[in-house]
Queue: 4 jobs
Job 1
Amino acid sequence: MIVLFTDYGLNGPYLGQVKNVLYQEAPGTPVVDLFANAPAHAPKPAAYLLAAYHGEFPIGTVYFAVVDPGVGGDRKPGVLEADGRWYVGPDNGLFEIIIQRAAAKPRWWNIVWRPDRLSATFHGRDLFAPIAARLACGDTPDKNPAHGDFREEPLGDIRHPDWPDDLAEIIYIDDFGNAMTGLRDSVLPDQEEIAIKGLSIPRGEKFSDIPEGLPLCYENSNGLLEIAVNRGRADQLPGIAIGVQVTVSKK
Amino acid sequence: MIVLFTDYGLNGPYLGQVKNVLYQEAPGTPVVDLFANAPAHAPKPAAYLLAAYHGEFPIGTVYFAVVDPGVGGDRKPGVLEADGRWYVGPDNGLFEIIIQRAAAKPRWWNIVWRPDRLSATFHGRDLFAPIAARLACGDTPDKNPAHGDFREEPLGDIRHPDWPDDLAEIIYIDDFGNAMTGLRDSVLPDQEEIAIKGLSIPRGEKFSDIPEGLPLCYENSNGLLEIAVNRGRADQLPGIAIGVQVTVSKK
Amino acid sequence: MIVLFTDYGLNGPYLGQVKNVLYQEAPGTPVVDLFANAPAHAPKPAAYLLAAYHGEFPIGTVYFAVVDPGVGGDRKPGVLEADGRWYVGPDNGLFEIIIQRAAAKPRWWNIVWRPDRLSATFHGRDLFAPIAARLACGDTPDKNPAHGDFREEPLGDIRHPDWPDDLAEIIYIDDFGNAMTGLRDSVLPDQEEIAIKGLSIPRGEKFSDIPEGLPLCYENSNGLLEIAVNRGRADQLPGIAIGVQVTVSKK
């Protein structure tokens, strides 16, 4: 399976152009759209989002993960292997939280291969998609060292040791207006108080625990602390946007 | 074939997470996105929309139909069989119009099976998708009574006898701004006058029957009375929104 | 492969209804969404967009290309063959630029076949999709002349000789707010100055060549001159919209 995690947007030709490459070069492999609106140009919140959502796909899955504001610059394209799954994308921190939480030590290869056509702005189609297709077909870096298309590098070269285990910020807002944070609910202290921009957000287990029109926070279906408004939109609360701080304090 | 009818929105991970389950548990089955923006949290208009759009898919199709504001509450998940097609979703009325219009008497089973992981807010992924995949693979409730995963219940338990045959309301607005009503055009009297919020809407057969910028109503390609503006947007007419009444009267 | 190029919008049932036909009548054929938001009701800019984006799909690809404001009127449905690819859609100019740029002389057939059910407003599902499926299955007009479903016509009947080789207008705005023009970058003079609504737009190769918040123009990944704002939105520049003129002049 190949899973797409990008900030390309669903409209426009970009995902279709990527899928054309995948269908041609890895025929028969299912391709799943996971996120097409990951935090735009923002590898840091995207890293926490990817780490929360990658785990339910099967071992062997190839993630085409491209949030790449530096495309065409000096950031390096590469492949990460972590706990039996493959991640193809830029070395800008997008895989930092996958690495932090991996059970076994991950490995990283720079992609040395260059396609005949490499546009300045669309490495997703030209470089990452052909590599993702190769991985999905079982052509992994270790199997074909003679190709010289991959060069293993120390994992430390791409790490961001200053990024926290969990990110106390809004990292994603969905079509319902629900706001996900970068905090895993399971790591929060039992009696914590959650607040955003000075507004305390009470806890619930499901939307209907709270009167209509009021906000609540809860563990979402992938384990993140999320903020919603029962039959309303949390993104219409004052100051809710990607990057906004969430405060967690003792009651 | 598995057909998706939800209010999940196209953005965000939800449809991709559902497809992951379907691709893993019913490999090779085509999955079609029909509606991802069915009326949000509103099973009643959604029921009329589903009934207008389900019929062109082949016998044996499994509908993953989830408009489920009571998720996590006491509504029951179930499976409907109607005229050789399967419908998986909540018992909140979403299938009422399918039942009303069925040629043969439909059957209903409560889903007794519970997955190992059942989140509070995403039964689509955790409960309905595995069941839809099983049905698509031919593992129907009658074939495997020993599993004990389904319990047939009287159809009357999930009926809404007070819901009309046709709904004189706006039930959906598409990306062009066209507004569908819950009225089948074929049941309307010949000389009826259609009006919304006091504005009479003339009849047309196609958009170009009316000068540019003016509204018209017509039988849409699935038999519903629909309101559009020729080369404009009906959703910019005053008062057009899901749930708004449509009046039908003798001229 | 079947590639979808429409102005249907991603939401709503339309693409799903088309795919249902394709999956049933051409099972196993990959279907790629290229554009679902081609310029609405506007075959002329759509023609330049299609011509820029069709080339990377394999020989034999069938394009379901429907931007069809005259649906139900007297425009004719047809099939174009150009350089080994097939294009199914209306004869309203949508294929003009494909024809202009073809290496070998294309051929055009009117579709004479009519389905049992032909709605007034959705020829995409009822007429074009079954034909696209037939072409994808190898049932081409020349192979089955006895069917009488296609009638070859002189190419001149559908030409628009007054449309220029390149269109100095905005033809598409993507989800990032980037504005594509109908100008191939390769045909522009070396020292040209690009301006829109009197605002001169400097050249760049990649976004980061320009300070954040300022506009630039560059050759996009499909060869079109495109306008963006580094880490901003070009569609928020004054006067940017589909159809707006782009001026190219000597510095």
Note: The mean pLDDT of chain A is 94.
Job 2
Amino acid sequence: MAQHRTGKERLTLFSDGVFAVIITILVLEMKPPDEATFGALLELWPTGLSYGVSYLFIAIVWINHHHLFNFTESATQRVVWYNFAHLFSVSLIPFTTEWLAESRLAAAPSSIYAVIFVFVNITYLALCWESVDRTSQTNISQRVRRLFRMRSFITIGLFTAAAVLALWWPVAGIALICLCLVLYVRPDVLQATSADG
Amino acid sequence: MAQHRTGKERLTLFSDGVFAVIITILVLEMKPPDEATFGALLELWPTGLSYGVSYLFIAIVWINHHHLFNFTESATQRVVWYNFAHLFSVSLIPFTTEWLAESRLAAAPSSIYAVIFVFVNITYLALCWESVDRTSQTNISQRVRRLFRMRSFITIGLFTAAAVLALWWPVAGIALICLCLVLYVRPDVLQATSADG
Amino acid sequence: MAQHRTGKERLTLFSDGVFAVIITILVLEMKPPDEATFGALLELWPTGLSYGVSYLFIAIVWINHHHLFNFTESATQRVVWYNFAHLFSVSLIPFTTEWLAESRLAAAPSSIYAVIFVFVNITYLALCWESVDRTSQTNISQRVRRLFRMRSFITIGLFTAAAVLALWWPVAGIALICLCLVLYVRPDVLQATSADG
Amino acid sequence: MAQHRTGKERLTLFSDGVFAVIITILVLEMKPPDEATFGALLELWPTGLSYGVSYLFIAIVWINHHHLFNFTESATQRVVWYNFAHLFSVSLIPFTTEWLAESRLAAAPSSIYAVIFVFVNITYLALCWESVDRTSQTNISQRVRRLFRMRSFITIGLFTAAAVLALWWPVAGIALICLCLVLYVRPDVLQATSADG
């Protein structure tokens, strides 16, 4: 029992370390403009926008990861591997963000950017199924689980739609991603079952 | 109750991870001179100055964050988001520091540098209001809160003044920032209410 | 007793911090293609492959490190130094990965890549001997230890073979490494003695 | 009391985060050779040597920091600031290491490299005085303190000598630094008073 807790705690701390490095390096990769003028800074708006969206997304992913691990009982072998898969897809965000910013929101990078968001959500869903659904927790009602699952599928659907849309209208794809993030901003459903904030 | 503590602790650890990466990478971004002479090293004084000031500022921000979280009772949804906003503004410091250093203290980068300091303070103030003021803590007297708030507004005012001043006299703006940091170096007011160091 | 635990805990947390930075920066070092097309992204397949393999390897190393420290009773001076040697060899992975990717799987980088894998395993074996074998733990049977040791030697042998093979057929060497990783994916033997996942 | 522990713990964790990032990024800054041959790798020996020495030094600094914080009772304002000064000097190591490696052990970089080692030791000594000497700990005898202080002064003297020596014979300065590190490798004196490893 005590060992189970340690295992889960170390996994949580390790994941937090990875999140902390990813979210920080993301913003650090923004290179200052060559000229020392406000105009040169404003020229960088696609960089600013894509980094802002990525920061917001990683923040949401961290919050959801945090919530999920409050419910997780133990770090089984599978939970560890799904977590690594989840962290791997999150760690691809800075790469695609940089590509998106450098191309100033071109079609291929916008689409790949949305695809990574889909991967992050799929690995998160796998992590949820493994760590919550397979355990017989009585404090999560069937209704809450259904709502939660529905929201996950809708999010994956919307991000997939954004990936397809971006092939023709990259800006529309990015706009759809921003819209999804607003929907995803609060982990309400899971939260409703817990006093924990 | 136990869950509340976990939530707050994980938020603290995550924030510390982000602070650790930001403060370290800040110094790591200093590129060594091309020539292997002392003269070439001395030539880098604007880089040294701006990195020193940024390091000091992030240290102060960390200390204040640390103090604040000693008083914070639980990590509510709002505390989490204001904390992400605070970390986001802190994470912009290396970007502006690099721009400031590369331009050798030009007007626009100096002004933007001060603006980021204002953002860091505003998000910190929001975090304070959310995590301390809204809770009915009897161990923080009204007088202490008033003093603390006054100091926050003075700091924000001084950094804003530095941002405007830097448009015409960048060096004066940077000097005013340095002066502010000396004022901000000790979180005395909050500390006076607690034996905790 | 309490101090022993603190020491071990701090060593674990420090190691996790190092692992978190290594695994993250590894993926962050992937530079986006210059052109904004899917073709340009596909051109990067050697980069993608080598980063994927390295990520998987570091994940396996972390899991094994995690398991080992569950059995470690105290962080002696030697455990601390073997752990630093282990982390040092792990920290060379991004360097060799980048060389491997840039050379598009050439002979010398492929061989050095396998050599680093050998170093990681040798330092891990030293860490095992020091932290588990020298303590008289009754909950690890002789049979389990023998199995575990045998598996370690086979792994080191296979990685050494991959290092030699890569000198003539780099792709075969990399393929052999991938095969080893599949064998190493589950720390079953040690796990069999513990309910801990 | 409980709050004191939290403060010290958070300071320890934050410091560990900074150490983890510094020691990792140090090795990550090694850039792979342009050619995919063993000869090109061997050409990088000054890089390899300087990174190896820096890694060893940071490992020693971490171990000493760890030992010191086992004795530290509470994180006072001064301990926090001396710790930031210590971390700042440690964070300059990658910068000087890179300069040293790029110049292939030239005079000025070798001397500055030794100067940073002196700074790291001075800030460590200040941290020791503040956190151990000023508290009335009966479990550290006068004799142990005297031995410890003597060793610190000898180390600072040797690193200063290395800084001067390096101005004329850089390789001799670096050799003297390596010699010092061997002396410093075990925190025996402090350890003798504690069963903690």
Note: Residues 2-196 of chain D form a domain with the I/LWEQ domain fold (CATH 1.20.1410).
Job 3
Amino acid sequence: MIVRKLKEIRQGDKNIKSDGWESARLLLKDDGMGFSFHVTTLYTGAELHMHYQNHLESVLILKGNGTIEDLGTGETHELRPGVMYALNDHDKHIVRVENEILCACVFNPPVTGREVHDETGAYPADTSEDREPALSE
Amino acid sequence: MIVRKLKEIRQGDKNIKSDGWESARLLLKDDGMGFSFHVTTLYTGAELHMHYQNHLESVLILKGNGTIEDLGTGETHELRPGVMYALNDHDKHIVRVENEILCACVFNPPVTGREVHDETGAYPADTSEDREPALSE
């Protein structure tokens, strides 16, 4: 059993800060769960253009509000506590933050913790040898 | 892109009520994410004996408090907002709820939504033919 505290993760090297957001990685690939699990803060006013070409992601909004624009369909959805979105088709999207958003995020395959968003707004594929999720069957 | 609202899930047939808990399934196996994602309420006073023999699970406490006892090690950990536990070794455990707990849960492989806890406190393995997570490689 792994037990971790968000407060401690935020003070360590698994708390990643970037342009418009920071993310506390509670579970990463090395934990062997087959997914990674992050608590992410999106700063007020941020406009984040993202396209995860190598990952599926789901996000549950816990605090704050904003919008997500689906660039595939042109639709814009409100984000507020209790709204979940899932990028099940590597959807290009823009998140616009009206009031600082706190959200719980799951990535499959799991993030290693060493990625940075590249110029397309993606995390690169994990090219290490043992990239299989723990429960691939 | 899938967008769902917890409030709506709670009013539909993806909100499962059982003895001591209820769980709103925001993402299930059929959504093709390779994991399932639930927001679960554990009622005050509940003592839940669990052993997921067929699944890995991670849980982030959002509200409330209680304890988790790891029956493998005998250790008891406090549960309160910001604490995450991950059952990475099919750990037998008991959750005791002091004040109603709200938590975000991820299961790998994904729950189909048709399971019930059996007499061992496990969900049975998914025996349907297409049980591979979407991103198994």
Note: Chain A has a mean pLDDT of 88.
Job 4
Amino acid sequence: MSRTIEDRLARVTFDDRGLVAAIVQQWDTREVLMMAWMDAEALRRTLTEGRVTFWSRSRGDYWRKGDTSGNVQYVRGAKLDCDGDAVLISVDQIGPACHTGTHTCFDADDLEPVAGRDAAP
Amino acid sequence: MSRTIEDRLARVTFDDRGLVAAIVQQWDTREVLMMAWMDAEALRRTLTEGRVTFWSRSRGDYWRKGDTSGNVQYVRGAKLDCDGDAVLISVDQIGPACHTGTHTCFDADDLEPVAGRDAAP
């Protein structure tokens, strides 16, 4: 693999908005904490600064996680998926990941699926 | 929470393409296996059939994971995130999750970030 930051960014398939989906996972417990979006500059900062930066579609600005809330995400690892349109960021999350105060952004709304074969009831 | 399938689907914020990001996680090891896309019908099938169905943007068709490859994903759980634009599907994955044959879709491309504070070297 090429190791310069430009070569790494060039492997990402940004969508027609210039964004890639970023899945954030706690490095040790492997909980999925949240999903947000990065443009090339947000990903560049995330890969080089040791802190996770997103692109806020609603505010149209960069958003370094924890700068306002204190709930910092320290980078531990980052992987690109097979078709280049999702990155999996491994972090050490300080405090709750969700702006609602819950530990993860997936804690509040259970979609209650029917379970498949062999699943516990 | 409302429990009818229509009420559950109505809580999802589909994007301007009618899609929601679906993160798929192995239920016991908590590995993130892949990310793909669902429209309302794919999510409806996923929540009601016990098997994971995506919408393929490249093929413009539904894609029930494992129908061709045998690498089925049996549904264990499904959560919606705080702003409704990502679902976290917990599954029991049969065989490799990635069409390239790797265990997950995030196994092949390390973006080699600089680690943040307190991270192991």
Note: Helices of chain A lie at 5-10, 40-49.
